[in-house]
């Protein structure tokens, strides 16, 4: 009889993947077959003891985003429709809430120097790492959890600064994923895709809420907007409500870009009171109609030096590219799921008494 709490290797069916889990139990040795099993079991335990943590280490390396792929981390507010309702955000866009999102993303750029560019709207943000980045050995799971948890933490910390009169009723959470782009061209398609989504969603939501505010029911509004083209929505806004869509704030229509630019900053004043200036890389916000356009991208040395040039403008985005951007990494069914959280640079936080 063997009684043990050990680590057993389980080979998933039709798959090379190894799963590690802890078992507690016993089995009786009463046949040749069972003896063999016992020997295998002991061997597994010996293997594990000899190669302490080897299995675990191999998991950590499995999701490395290989060079020369570009790494993009996209975060997206989880059930943000409820969050915005509970916190009474203006519809369809709450400028203060968007500014809070932007401020959090600026904090992300400061915290992670390898992030070169960020683009976001509504409840989402995409962060692009420089192509040579070795951040956390390019391990996707590590990187996405760091960015999402940092972003959420900053959101909570800064809430009061942006909404001094409103209580934060619960903390938002952000789902995140790593999108790997095989070349600058794929990154360009990714950015164009996100900005097109921003435009389409904002146009739809603007029409939707104008119609609802004018007295239409939700189902009537959905019926009116069903299958309408962009041009028709623009006409609806203009004819019914006198709104020229193009004059709405860029923040809503185009989303926000953030990247580091060299700017001159006064660092101190000399003994005569004259400002002493230094060039510093500072995160700046920019709005642009086409963030994936050559004219925008190739004008910014900090973008094309670290991420690559866009060689031509793109029209229609390849559907295969979009499918790859939407790919979700799922865990194997019928496996045990353990989530471990582990503070990052916690020692420095503790020593500062935070
Ligand atoms: P999941 O992302 O699938 O968890 O759901 P979600 O509810 O977050 O939806 P999704 O990310 O697709 O869309 C974001 C939603 O957040 C929008 O549909 C809005 O309901 C809400 N939202 C984002 N920004 C604002 C804002 O400024 N004002 C208001 N009123 N709502 C907003
Ligand atoms: Mg969301």
Automatic annotation (TrEMBL):
Keyword match Cell membrane: no
InterPro entries: Thg1_C_dom, tRNAHis_GuaTrfase_cat, tRNAHis_GuaTrfase_Thg1, tRNAHis_GuaTrfase_Thg1_sf
GO cellular component: nucleoplasm
Taxonomic superkingdom: Eukaryota
Residues covered by the Thg1 C-terminal domain: 186-272
Domain tRNAHis guanylyltransferase catalytic, chain residue ranges per copy: 53-181
Signal peptide: none
A biological process from GO: tRNA modification
Broad class of the protein's primary localization: nucleus
A molecular function GO annotation: tRNA guanylyltransferase activity
Pfam family, one: Thg1
Compartments in which it is found: Nucleus, Nucleoplasm
Biological role stated in the UniProt entry: Adds a GMP to the 5'-end of tRNA(His) after transcription and RNase P cleavage.
Protein name: tRNA(His) guanylyltransferase
